[in-house]
Amino acid sequence: RALLVTEPLRPALTAPGVEFVVDSEGQHRASLRWITERTEALMKHLQSNNVKLLLSSVKQEEVVIYYAKLYGVSVVECLSSEEMALISEITGVSPCTPLGDNMDRAITETAVVTFCRPLLLASRRCVHIGFSSVSAFQPHCLILCGPVDGVNEQHAAAVQEAFTMLQQLFKTVDL
């Protein structure tokens, strides 16, 4: 199971717009310990809900990566909004809202993943993920490789334009 997120999972000490004052080194250490414990609790919660893959549109903090690895959750970071939208379209799953203090809540908005493998294309680190589709759309795999970056970018732009055209075509058909 994969969970889609659009926010950092490291808990914040305060709400936006609220000032947090630390008067001593002891308070600072206690705050960091609290963040670490909350992050670990979140990863335990993901593990207990059988979440094995975290797909994030934002870069996650090192403490999140550490505990994710410790609890067997793979993390894919910095996905573009287009990639997140495509994953949502294929799987029918929306990005998760922050759990906050409600760690007892079952995680139900997860995508079914059939496989997930790291992929190295030239010097770029990628991930190859297979999703179970819930719509009529059946995802396919397309990897573009060229001798130089410029050719890759030209091919990618052409394919993206083709997909945009197909997307527009399907929107008019659905109406």
Automatic annotation (TrEMBL):
InterPro entries on file: BBS10, GroEL-like_apical_dom_sf
Q: What is the lineage of its organism?
A: Eukaryota, Metazoa, Chordata, Craniata, Vertebrata
Listed name of the protein: BBS10 protein
Identify the domain of life: Eukaryota
The UniProt entry's GO biological process terms, in alphabetical order, are: chaperone-mediated protein complex assembly
